[in-house]
Amino acid sequence: MEKLLDQIRNFDQSRLPRHIAIIMDGNGRWAQQQGKPRVFGHQQGVNAVRNAIEGSGEAGVKYLTLFAFSTENWNRPAEEVNALTGLLVKAIHAELENLQKNQVRLKVIGNLKALPNECYHELLKAIDQTKENTGLTVILALSYSSRWEITEMAKNIGEKVKKNTLNPQEIDDQTVIDNLTTFDIPDPDILIRTGGEFRISNFLLYQIAYSELFFSSIMWPDFSKKTLWQIILDYFSRQRRFGKTSEQVSCSE
Ligand code: IPE
Ligand code: IPE
Ligand code: MG
């Protein structure tokens, strides 16, 4: 396994993905396949989160965004929603020391006001305590959906126009980017979805315009550093053209 990491480290470091985003899917099915309750899958999913964080840090990735709870997930049975928010509080508490040791900086995107109080405060505390860390930035997407974010962006821009601090004719791509929750985070180079589904489920729709997509049949609790590193090596073999021809891109490399 260390060989995979060596291969990544020996590769042209200017082509290393700066930002990896993951739709962590398959916890419930993973548990049910073993005759266990869905919540057991979420609990085991915490180990996979640790693998993703450590594996990204060791590979030299700078940003890791994890889709942990979507706006639509509020529609799940209350029991599961409560288990998930409770697990989040517990996991942050238990992992904080490890995050500090690894110089991880924690951030959150999403409608945080919708989260239970305890959860919200635990998050703010962890964000504050890790804000000076200089290693990997981990962004948790919680109570997040891309359409919610885009609506908020429209509201923010509308307010600025109303206050005469923004001229509508001057609105450009950068204005939009500056008013999204990800304003200070580069777009993902890689988007991974585990759990065998081939959909985006309302995640970072604007930001993944040019991301390289990877769909894995692995259920999230089974996600390992090896899975991640194999995806990074696979990414190296892709040519990102951003609309240009293959020849243009290979000339400028
Ligand atoms: C992903 O696993 C975790 C969350 C969405 C919170 P799921 O809970 O969606 O697991 P499956 O897709 O039902 O197996
Ligand atoms: C997407 O998974 C959301 C998260 C991983 C947090 P879901 O399991 O909720 O997605 P759908 O409902 O199958 O599209
Ligand atoms: Mg799912």
Structural summary, described in words:
- The protein has a single domain (17-144, 186-239), classed as Undecaprenyl pyrophosphate synthetase (3-Layer(aba) Sandwich).
- It is globular.
- The protein has nine helices and six strands, in the order H-E-H-H-E-H-E-H-E-H-H-E-E-H-H.
- A six-stranded parallel β-sheet has the order 3-4-2-1-5-6, with helices on both faces.
- It has helices at 2-10, 27-32, 38-59, 78-101, 117-129, 146-162, 173-178, 225-236, 246-252; strands at 19-23, 63-70, 105-109, 137-144, 190-193, 212-215.
- With 253 residues, it is an alpha/beta fold.
- 32% of the residues are buried.
- Helix 1 runs parallel beside helix 8 and helix 4 runs parallel beside helix 5 (117-129).
- The two termini are 29 Å apart.
- The structure holds 3-methylbut-3-enyl trihydrogen diphosphate (2 copies) and magnesium ion.
What keywords describe this structure?
46% helix, 6-stranded parallel β-sheet, 9 helices, binds 3-methylbut-3-enyl trihydrogen diphosphate, 253 residues, alpha/beta, globular, binds magnesium ion, Undecaprenyl pyrophosphate synthetase
